[in-house]
Write a structure and sequence with these properties.
With 166 residues, this protein is of the alpha+beta class. Helix content is 39%, strand content 30%. It has 4 helices and 8 strands, in the order E-H-H-E-E-E-E-H-E-E-E-H. The protein has a 4-stranded antiparallel sheet, with no helix packed on it. A 4-stranded mixed sheet has the order 5-7-8-6, covered by helices on one side. A hairpin with a 4-residue loop joins strand 7 and strand 8. Helix 1 runs antiparallel to helix 2. The longest helix is centred in the first third of the chain and has 23 residues. The radius of gyration is 20 Å and the shape is elongated.
């Protein structure tokens, strides 16, 4: 079973546009000599780096979540997260579902940490900056826990619960 995140990139697009406009204004202030040019140039470079980071992470990337089929002879029973950039597909996270402890609707990390204790690794594999619907997958054992945030629908989350037996 494969689930591809539906992308609504409006927040990332608006933020990139605002940061680019800020960089443009800072460049103009630097060229006009309205103050110390190096401060304007430094701030301009910081905002351009923000544009590049946000566009690389949210505008040019998508994620797919793949659950291995249960009917195969070799039952791997794992989830694989694939990052898609154009035609390039890269596996960024693979973990067996036997380590899955819980599938929870998204809540703030502070509240999650209060419920499940110290979480040593936290990852976000959502295609949008602020998705409307996302879930925390809690993986781990007694020594360490990992929290993975994915952007999926309720049906995919239920399938995860069923296959992991939680």
């Amino acid at each position: 079973m494969t689930y591809s995140c539906p992308r609504r990139r409006i927040t990332a697009q608006v933020l990139c546009l605002l940061l680019f406009a800020l960089a443009l204004m800072l460049g103009i202030f630097s060229a006009l000599g309205l103050g110390p040019a190096w401060i304007f140039q430094l701030l301009m470079m910081v905002s351009l780096v923000g544009v590049i980071q946000i566009s690389q992470r949210y505008l040019l990337s998508a994620y797919e979540y793949i659950l291995d089929p249960l009917e195969e002879i070799l039952q791997y029973n794992r989830i694989t997260v694939i990052r898609v950039q154009g035609k390039r597909r890269t596996s960024v996270y693979t973990v067996p579902l036997s380590r899955l402890e819980e599938v929870l609707p998204y809540r703030k990390y502070k509240k999650l940490r209060e419920e499940y204790g110290e979480i040593s690794m936290r990852m976000n594999f959502c295609a949008d900056m602020f998705p409307r619907e996302s879930y925390w997958l809690i993986f781990g054992d007694e020594s360490e826990k990992a929290a993975v945030r994915i952007q999926c629908g309720k049906d995919f989350a239920e399938e995860l619960r069923k296959r992991a037996g939680v």
